[in-house]
Amino acid sequence: MTALRIGVVGVNYAEVTHLPAYRTLAAEGLVELVALATAHPGTAREAAARHGVPRAHVGYEELCVDPEVDLVDIVTRPSLHLDMARSALAAGKRVLCEAPLAPTVAAGEELATLACGRGFVDMQSRFQPGLAELRRRVRDGYVGRVDNVAVTAFYPTFTTEAAVAGSGWCAEAAHGASSLRVHGLHTADLLRWTFGELSDVRGSATTRQPAWLGRVPADSVDSAAWTARTAEGAVCSVHTSWVAPLGAGFRMVVHGSEGVLRAEADGHTGHFPVRLAGARSGDGAVRDLVPASGGPASAFEALARALAAGDTAHVPTFDDGLAALRVASAVEDGDTA
Fold it and tell me: Which of 82, 169, 215, 287 is deepest in the core (most CB within 10 A)?
């Protein structure tokens, strides 16, 4: 099998998950990291040298037309995604884009139309073994008829010095990130992937912490709560925040006519392993089904492995990214979707 040749745009967040995963897959001959791009010559050269990448490009435009690149991995703030993905698609590349796909629904619609099967979104939570097993059991009838799904995701992310120093730009709504549009979109994607299309989406989103650590002005949404109905009529509720100082992490509980499933993680499901427990009527008690396992890059590595192998059935596409954007927009606007 020919290795998938990858070019990465942006290196800040990529150094935590994307680049370590690509190194692992490169050692197996599955991918080849051929280029990096940043906005400045110095940072581009330094990052390429640090990671042993042969070419450093200044600006995404150069990387998108690099004939050695098969797939462009866009790892930048959401407000930049539209132009970058548009450029990569116009150059005939496959594209992997961080979530959210785009800053607006209209921009997401444009990209989904342009992609023609070549666009994927890094909502890697699908590749956590505990969540994949939850989906399998739901579809196999473990809980019977699904009646209620409750999700809470409370994280202390931007109450910490490290997060504010590394990703303080998330405080500004103009950059396109928020608790609803980042962690919340992973949850929306998981719900759609597991239970089918969502309808009757309605909710509330707000900014409760207007200054991170008392000094960084913030106007992006940090807290959101919303409800929806699944394709088969079950009621879902989702409540998220990324400024909860003592946030207990992620919890999804699926209640059905014949059982219950409970998935939990200590943090955002894109990076923290998920443990799954469950019980059926008559079992007497909930028991462990899948232990938490893996590191911060494990889920992304599994997604990238699937892309390299051409096994993309469960890799979120631009269409999935657009559907998640529509959920976020409905919550923010107070409309229904």
Answer: 82
Q: What is the pLDDT of residues 159-213, one digit of tens each?
A: 999 999 999 999 999 999 999 999 899 999 999 999 999 999 999 999 999 999 9
Burial class, 27, CB count within 10 angstroms (exposed 0-12 / middle 13-18 / buried 19+): exposed
Strands 223-229 and 199-206: antiparallel
Measured distance CA(140)–CA(134) in Å, rounded: 10
Q: What would the two tokens of residue 63 be?
A: 């990387």
What is the pTM (predicted TM-score) of this model? 0.95
> Which CATH fold topology does 126-296+316-333 show?
Dihydrodipicolinate Reductase; domain 2 (3.30.360)
Query: Does 126-296+316-333 match 4-122 at the fold level?
Result: no
For residue range 254-309, what is the model confidence (pLDDT) as tens digits?
Answer: 999 999 999 999 999 999 999 999 999 999 899 999 999 999 999 999 999 999 99
CB under 8 A, 24+ apart: contacts of 106-113: 107/81, 107/82, 108/318, 108/321, 108/322, 108/325, 108/326, 109/322, 110/82, 110/86, 111/81, 111/82, 111/85, 111/86, 111/318, 111/321, 111/322, 112/317, 112/318, 112/319, 112/321, 112/322
3-state class (DSSP) for residue 85: helix
The answer to whether 300 touches 294, Cβ cutoff 8 Å, is no
Assigned CATH topology for domain 4-122: Rossmann fold (3.40.50)
Write down the domain spans for the chain: 4-122, 126-296+316-333
Task: Write the pLDDT tens digit of every residue in 26-59.
Answer: 999 999 999 999 988 888 889 889 888 999 999 9
Cα–Cα distance for residue pair 337/327, rounded to 1 Å: 7
